């Protein structure tokens, strides 16, 4: 063998600056392998230049410009406190890499928790990860602030059924940003409440303003410390929420018949106009910036629903028993790989329906729309999803939608649209509901549709209820950094409500503990389990022979197998469940108790006037 057959070690022939530049673009998996090559490589990467290498913006997700500390992690939307006590840039890189790999997996490992809030079905909810609580409204009225870690109700406002001065109406829509809550009251007024005021306990809010309107308001949305309100009567309102009281800064004139869904960026607000698509206005000047009309898209994709697998009666019993009876949020369950079911996107539209009365044959109606940076996503009654990777460029070019827009078609009869039609967009993914299933569709790094033959990130779906007979439309959903959160219909356990600050009188129908259908908050966590792996950032002395310490293989896919878990909480609970579900989930008697409108679906229908206040992105 000649000398030319040997490849020189780059560490011996190249300046450190050149090696560092190369390593800046080297994938994390390759770094882990390099540390196992020799002691010299381990010393170079994991000791001498560790912080420089792992603090690169190509290795960790961080604010533009490269932060030199971990203060930005306090803004992470993580249910599991995944980034708490991060010790080094390598430690952060490890956590982010494991999390990203699990999200991208075709069958991610998940752990689940379900939170029952009081005894009434949850309508809207928001998660405050900084203060560690949920704030929610319900079908029956009232508002609850619930500890995110224990499930204990910290504070609440009563329902208007109690005729209290501070009561909250049934089906109240809720907006929230960093300690400020906005919800609608009877009429066309909005209430603004603030947490953390002087003398207030944790989770306690105090009203700071009532915003009245002299026209029919249809929806509202809070972000960027700006509240945008839309009316069906051709008007829009923009409030500066940093002022006390909040100040109306812009009164917009828009087209009539806005359907109520809206979202905003720092400078623009986008209103849904039903069959006319989405209209965009400048928040400061009120100027019309243009319209996004999804029906002009020519780039088409479709999703076929997964093969239906209805839970058995035994599975339903197990699921319900796992979720109660307790007033406290139980810890995340055992790891499992069957919660999220893979779905495949295919190129082209769905085959046309043979039924000429099918919703896809008519003029489609566009509802919820959501912005995330340059990305805009909209959802329609016919089950179409509009994905626009750069909405600003799409507005300023005749061929904009052809260049930047795509449509995804899903098989839907439109039945869930009026009370559902929810969206969430985050981290190159979008989430929506189709026919009792939630779909999570992954995009590429430029927020465009992935190559359907070779996707880098997986897409999947999950059920919206523990049993099909209990399914009702989702009324809120959110993608977080480490979790999927949605409303979830399942069986609840009657809870005694007492000793809660701001507590209302006991509901008249609240009797002894029993089981009933309800809508809870479901948390599906995709956070990796860091407890069983030794952090490479804590091991600088070992050589490459110990790959667990040096990083070689440390960030390989390491997902635990599902463990055995306790299924039944009590014999009495099991007997009550069997009595409720009967032979193959026959729960008609119990559902009739909730069926206030007599249509047999087990839920009281939302009055049109109630629902129209709750529409937004």
Topology readout:
Blueprint (H helix, E strand, L loop, with lengths): L9 H4 L2 H9 L3 H7 L4 H10 L1 H5 L34 H16 L6 E5 L6 E7 L4 E6 L4 E5 L5 E5 L16 E4 L2 E5 L5 E6 L9 E7 L5 E7 L2 E6 L3 E6 L6 E7 L8 E3 L3 E5 L5 E5 L5 E5 L7 E4 L9 H10 L18 E3 L1 E3 L18 E7 L2 E6 L3 E5 L2 H5 L4 H5 E6 L12 E4 L2 E6 L2 E6 L16 E5 L13 E3 L3 E11 L21 E11 L21 H4 L20 H11 L6 H7 L13 H5 L5
Parallel strand pairs: 18-24
Antiparallel strand pairs: 1-31, 2-3, 3-4, 4-5, 6-7, 7-8, 8-9, 10-11, 11-12, 12-13, 14-15, 15-16, 16-17, 18-20, 19-28, 21-22, 22-23, 23-24, 25-26, 26-27, 27-28, 29-30, 30-31
Helix pairs in contact: 7-11
- Binned, the helix content reads 10-25%
- Low-confidence spans: pLDDT under 50, at least 5 residues? 324-328, 534-554, 556-578, 580-615
Cα(first) to Cα(last) distance is 68 Å
What coarse outline follows from CA principal-axis ratios? globular
Assembly state here? Answer: single chain
Strand content range: 25-35%
In the CATH hierarchy, the architecture of the domain at 3-104 and 530-550 is: Up-down Bundle
Give the class-level CATH name of the domain at 3-104 and 530-550: Mainly Alpha
CATH topology of the domain at 3-104 and 530-550: Monooxygenase
InterPro entries: F-box-like_dom_sf, F-box_dom
Organism: Aspergillus ibericus CBS 121593
Protein name: F-box domain-containing protein
Keywords:
alpha+beta; 6-stranded mixed sheet; 5-stranded antiparallel sheet; 13 helices; disordered C terminus
Descriptive report:
This protein has 617 residues and is α+β, with helices and mostly antiparallel strands. It has a domain at 3-104 and 530-550: Monooxygenase. The chain has 13 helices and 31 strands. The protein has a six-stranded mixed β-sheet with strand order 20-18-24-23-22-21. Strand 25 and strand 26 (429-434) form a beta hairpin. It is globular and about 80 Å long. The N and C termini lie far apart (68 Å). 43% of the residues are buried. The model is unreliable at 324-328, 534-554, 556-578 and 580-615 (pLDDT under 50). Residues 499-518, 530-617 are annotated as: Disordered. It comes from Aspergillus ibericus CBS 121593. Residues 8-57 form the F-box domain. It holds the Pfam family F-box-like.
């Amino acid at each position: 063998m000649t000398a030319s057959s040997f490849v020189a070690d780059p560490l011996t022939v190249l300046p450190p600056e050149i090696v560092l530049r190369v390593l800046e673009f080297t994938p994390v998996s390759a770094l882990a392998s390099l540390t196992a090559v020799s002691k010299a490589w381990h010393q170079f990467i994991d000791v001498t230049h560790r912080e420089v290498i792992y603090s690169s913006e190509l290795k960790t997700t961080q604010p533009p410009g490269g932060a030199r500390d971990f203060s930005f992690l306090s803004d992470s939307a993580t249910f599991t406190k995944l980034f708490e006590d991060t010790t080094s840039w390598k430690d952060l890189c490890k956590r982010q890499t494991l999390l990203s790999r699990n999200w991208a997996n075709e069958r991610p490992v998940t752990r689940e928790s379900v939170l029952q809030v009081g005894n009434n079905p949850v309508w809207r909810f928001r998660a405050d990860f900084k203060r560690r609580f949920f704030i929610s409204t319900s079908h029956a009225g009232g508002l609850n602030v619930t500890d995110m870690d224990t499930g204990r109700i910290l504070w609440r406002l009563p329902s208007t059924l109690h005729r209290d001065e501070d009561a909250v109406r049934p089906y109240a829509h809720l907006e929230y940003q960093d300690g400020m809550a906005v919800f609608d009251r009877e009429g066309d007024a909005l209430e603004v409440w603030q947490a953390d005021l002087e003398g207030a306990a944790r989770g306690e809010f105090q009203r700071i303003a009532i915003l009245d309107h002299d026209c029919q308001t249809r929806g509202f949305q809070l972000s960027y410390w700006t509240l945008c309100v839309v009316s069906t009567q051709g008007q829009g309102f923009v409030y500066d929420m940093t002022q006390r009281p909040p100040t109306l800064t812009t009164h917009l004139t828009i087209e009539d018949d806005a359907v109520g869904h809206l979202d905003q960026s720092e400078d623009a607000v986008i209103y849904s106009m039903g069959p006319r698509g989405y209209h965009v206005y400048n928040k400061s000047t009120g100027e019309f910036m243009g319209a996004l009309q999804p029906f002009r898209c020519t780039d088409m994709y479709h999703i076929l629903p997964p093969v239906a697998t209805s839970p058995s009666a035994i599975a339903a019993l197990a699921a319900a028993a796992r979720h109660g009876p307790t007033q406290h949020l139980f810890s995340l369950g055992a790891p499992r790989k069957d919660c999220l079911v893979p779905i495949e996107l295919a190129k082209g539209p769905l085959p046309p329906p043979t039924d000429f009365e099918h919703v896809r044959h008519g003029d489609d109606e566009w509802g919820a729309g959501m912005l995330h940076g340059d990305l805009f996503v909209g959802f329609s009654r016919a089950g179409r999803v509009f994905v626009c990777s750069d909405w600003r460029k799409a507005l300023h070019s005749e061929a904009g939608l052809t260049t930047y827009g795509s449509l995804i078609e899903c098989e839907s009869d439109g039945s869930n649209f009026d009370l559902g039609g929810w969206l969430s967009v985050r981290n190159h993914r979008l989430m929506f509901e189709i026919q009792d299933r939630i779909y999570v569709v992954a995009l590429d790094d430029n927020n465009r549709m992935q190559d359907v033959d070779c996707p880098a990130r997986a897409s999947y779906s999950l059920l919206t209820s523990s049993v099909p007979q209990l399914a009702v439309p989702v009324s809120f959903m959110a993608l977080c950094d480490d979790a999927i959160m949605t409303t979830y219909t399942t069986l609840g356990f009657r809870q005694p409500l007492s000793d809660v600050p701001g507590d209302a009188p006991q509901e008249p129908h609240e009797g002894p503990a029993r089981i009933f259908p309800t809508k809870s908050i479901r948390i599906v966590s995709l956070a990796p389990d860091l407890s069983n792996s030794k952090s490479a950032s804590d091991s600088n002395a070992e050589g490459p022979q110990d790959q667990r310490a040096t990083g070689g293989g440390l960030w390989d896919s390491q997902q635990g197998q599902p463990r055995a878990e306790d299924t039944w909480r009590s014999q009495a609970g099991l007997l009550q469940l069997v009595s409720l579900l009967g032979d193959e989930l026959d729960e008609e008697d119990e559902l009739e108790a909730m069926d206030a409108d007599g249509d047999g679906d087990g839920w009281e229908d939302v009055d049109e006037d109630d629902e129209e206040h709750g529409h937004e992105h």
